[in-house]
Amino acid sequence: MANEGKTFEKIIAQSLKDGNGYLYRLNDNMSGYISIGNPCDFFYYCANVLYCIECKTVEMARFPFSNIQDMQMDGLLKANAKKGVWGGFLIYYRSTKSTQLVNVDTVRRLYSEGKRSLYITDTGVLIKSTPLQLYSRYTVKDMEDALKAAYRMKYKGEV
Q: Whose CB among 4, 48, 113, 137 lies 3.0–4.6 Å from 130's, allowing a Cys bridge?
């Protein structure tokens, strides 16, 4: 099977490409050197907010924090600290066919509390989708609504 993460990224790009915002896909470093890379997979600018989105996919119903590279965490935390910017993770749980947006500050808080994984019931914004055989399909409206809800959570202090 193809790389699940790359397949998920393509599905997300397809879902947002005709949206109301500007989608920019960062080029991946395919050389295998972890120290060289990007803090996220996408920039999506919509309604005066820049969303820095790192896509992750896991088989189980939990997302281990060990799946996050230090450079991703550091870069997303720096971006998320800025006004008008949201940084975080878009996680697809293949076993439940559920997708969740989680702010990077939430991941940092949970990790500092001693947690080593994120469960879909912990926090974040669930994204409406249509389950398919392996992945899910997302509408532009559902994706943009979820992004806006995640951004509102950041400024309400709910992250």
A: 137
